[in-house]
């Protein structure tokens, strides 16, 4: 294949662009707070769109954790 100076410059620019784009994809993404668990309401299955299962509620803490009791149990053996 016959490379001219123009073709080499074009190839170098394309390679540089692809490399730079690849490095941009590897940059860490900062976590953005996801909406969905305001006031304890889980509007999605996992709490929010990202399925993080996180709620900022503070009613349960180290002092009252031992006082928790089981409220309900789901028996899956009823389904086979």
| Count of alpha/pi helices | 1
Task: Tell me the β content.
Answer: under 5%
Low-confidence stretches: none
Structural class: mainly alpha
Element-by-element helix/strand order: H
Secondary structure: number of strands? 0
The percentage helix is: 25-40%
Q: Which oligomeric form is depicted?
A: single chain
Shape category: elongated
Computed over alpha carbons, the radius of gyration is 27 Å
Largest sheet: none
Distance between the termini: 68 Å
Topology:
Elements: H1 5-25
Task: Describe the protein.
The protein has one helix at residues 5-25. The chain has 1 helix and no strands. The longest helix is centred in the N-terminal third of the chain and has 21 residues, at 5-25. It has 80 residues and is an all-alpha fold. The protein has a domain at 35-66. The chain is elongated.
């Amino acid at each position: 294949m016959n490379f001219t100076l123009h073709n080499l410059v074009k190839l170098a620019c394309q390679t540089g662009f692809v490399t730079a784009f690849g490095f941009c994809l590897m940059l860490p993404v900062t976590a953005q707070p996801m909406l969905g668990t305001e006031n304890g309401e889980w509007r999605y299955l996992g709490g929010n769109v990202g399925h993080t299962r996180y709620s900022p509620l503070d009613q349960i803490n180290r002092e009252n954790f031992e006082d928790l009791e089981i409220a309900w149990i789901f028996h899956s053996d009823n389904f086979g």
